[in-house]
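User: Fold this; tokens only.

Assistant: Input:
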Amino acid sequence: MRNLLVLTAVTLAAGCAEKSAPIDHQASPDETIRPYCAFDLSEPEVLKGELIANDVPHLDCVAPEGGADFSVGFAHDGWRAVLHLPRASARVGETIAFGDGRVAMLYQGKDGYCTDWDGEVVWLGDVPSWGIIVTAYCKTAPLAVVGAWSGS
């Protein structure tokens, strides 16, 4: 009986307590939320933005992870590009030409397909703060991928 009285007193006291303010789940002003993928493209379309989460319909960025290859994937509205750069044969800060065999890129879209490129990749940084600049012109079709991707 004593336990029931204590439980009743606690329940009544809790019911009379002031309501607390709702919890704000957004970052405080002094917190910095960094995008896992920022992009600034001029080809195959003009597109600029940042992704904090993979939550934008018809837009996808696959950021690099650890492993033998530095790989970045990006897709938007009917096209996608995937770039691979072997970490063992390239260095951050280096400009790598598509013709030297150390970088590969696949492009697929409504406008065509390409794996054979002229141009270069500037490797700005590796994970956790990564970045690349791509200037690529397809040798076999009128396609181009030109832009910068970065994230952390």
